[in-house]
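@channel sequence for tomorrow's demo:
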Amino acid sequence: MLELTMAAVTAADAGATAGMQMADAPSEPGAVLRVGRDKSVCRLSTPDDWLFVSRVHLEFRCGPDGTWGLTWLRGSQPDPSSEVRVTVAGYARSLAYGGTLPLPRGGSGEIVVQDRTGPRSVNVGFYHEV
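structure tokens (generated this afternoon):
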């Protein structure tokens, strides 16, 4: 099972957990969880006016062996208006626009989608329960 928690944070909200959303999915091949502005396909959705987040921004997909991968989906613009950083076991790294990263089996971490134009971010914590 992959469990996600998401908080949309502005400078005024820093440290607050109001508005936190949660989603989970079993670790079965083909299972998908998405994060973005489009509430019709995303289990975790950001405010509609947060244009630095694509309609479907992040996709968590379970592979045939029960492990999960994270993809930053390319949007309609050639260059993103955000940055995505992934922290696992205290090690942070940037995720390339359009890139995919395997998540550790039985691990946890955080993904931060940071607005390049202002002090806003989407923080998604993950925990892969085995």
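heads up for whoever presents: The two ends are 7 Å apart (CA to CA).
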